[in-house]
Amino acid sequence: MLQGWRLKVSKMFLIPQRYVLGIMGLLAVCNAYTMRVCLNLAVTQMVNNSKSDSQHYDPDACPDDSEILVNGTVAFKPHAIFDWSESTQGLILSGFYYGYAITHVPGGYLAERYGGKWTLGIGLLSTAIFTLLTPVVVKAGGATWLFILRVLQGMGEGPTMPALMIVLARWVPPHERSRQGALVFGGAQIGNIFGSFMSGFLMAGGGDWSNVFYFFGCFGIMWFIAWSIFCYSTPNTHPFISDEELKYLNETVTSAENASIRDPVPWKAIVRSVPVWALLFAAVGHDWGYYTMVTDLPKYMTDVLKFNIATTGTLTAIPYLAMWISAFLFGWACDVCVKRQWHSIKTGRIIHTTIAATGPAICIILASYSGCDRFAAVAYFIASMALMGGFYSGMKVNALDLAPNYAGSLTAMINGTSTISGIITPYLIGLLTPNSTLVQWRLAFWVCFAVLVGTNVIYCIWADGKQQWWDDVRQYGYPSEWKHGPLKTANLDKEKNKKKEAEATAL
């Protein structure tokens, strides 16, 4: 009876369960990013910087259309009740990433040990609750309390990527990973698009910035309810999966599900792995460029190009729409080339990572030299983010190539370490742009250029696209390989086989 009920429910789904998981994973990342970035736009309406603007004259300043008409009179940011410096704002914006970095490795461990479903779900639920509390907390405790709350929000989102990697490693066959990676991680761009547009919409015409946090907090809670119902950590524990899909996934997915096999994590071998270090450098470069855009593009639009908040919300969303679309195109192209053997997985990862690093680096420099030509500046930012979409079929899924059995722990280490970019960039840009002038922002973009290009060179030299010896537990086993290394172990295996053959011959 139970089996018949399960089959009836499985037929109600029009698409395979791994694609249902992909869609819910997309919404998970979307939800995570809306709660992460909503403050980036809201802070422009929370802080009254008219006083500092009047004290500093900028000869390169652009024409201002950021003022709001209320009852026929000019009202400049009617809900701007805080007087925070640029460095204080940068510190607040970076607070999220302190917590985000702390819980990456524990989140990866919990996801591998107990499954990605609840590790991811509970983490994002806690962030949604903290988002709802933001207006009350900041009004009660100011910048200090807001910084602490942002750290707690980051801690809730820390397990997101490691847990998702674990779930994808259990559900997605190797030849579908670029497309599924583009689908799921493209949720970051959906979140940026949705978060930026809705934030601008909710605050347009003098709207209260508190509504932004109430809206996205409720959105996060609604996602958690859907995730709890429709998604499971592994195909074998999913009650609604069809027998055909379950058989297909068990035959094609190469990740280990036995906890005793996955434990312990070969940290010593991981740390000594050259491809892992190459991936880490690429991740640092990606995060530096990405967080520069995500965290500070709204401030550049408002403070330098002088767009009003509604226009800023819309124009900030467009580059992420371009990135989302391009991520699918890059993912499709990479999968086709690998499947038809036009290039190896390694070559594909290097090509797409290079496009996603050098292209945006050039575009943001061109944007900074376009001055007050708003059309040109926005066009360069759109091109920059579109090219950055190549990261999702490049280094972003490289952890699945190197270590499908330890994808959660490896992703946790890579993402947790590279999050230092998110900690440094907002505060550094705040220090480099004390008066938020065009010339000061140009220097900040040159720093971003150097980091993107430099880290990409390292990745191109030492990247790999093959499963690493320390991950293939079924071939090598524990602990001899982690002690001796793959080459010596291979020789030991040959000696063992010779002994067995000699013993068999003697018998």
Q: Which structural class do you get from the secondary structure elements?
A: mainly alpha
List the quaternary state of the chains: single chain
β-strand percent reads under 5%
Indicate the percent of residues in helices. over 70%
Question: Which SSEs are present, and which pair or pack?
Answer:
Blueprint (H helix, E strand, L loop, with lengths): L1 H11 L4 H30 L3 H6 L12 E3 L2 E3 L10 H17 L1 H11 L1 H42 L2 H12 L5 H9 L1 H17 L6 H21 L12 H10 L6 H4 L4 H5 L2 H31 L4 H31 L5 H24 L5 H15 L9 H5 L4 H12 L1 H13 L5 H25 L10 H4 L3 H5 L1 H21 L1
Antiparallel strand pairs: 1-2
List the defining traits of the structure above:
507 residues; single chain; two-stranded antiparallel ribbon; 24 helices; mainly alpha
Give the gist of this structure.
Residues 20-467 form the Major facilitator superfamily (MFS) profile domain. By secondary structure, the chain is mainly α.
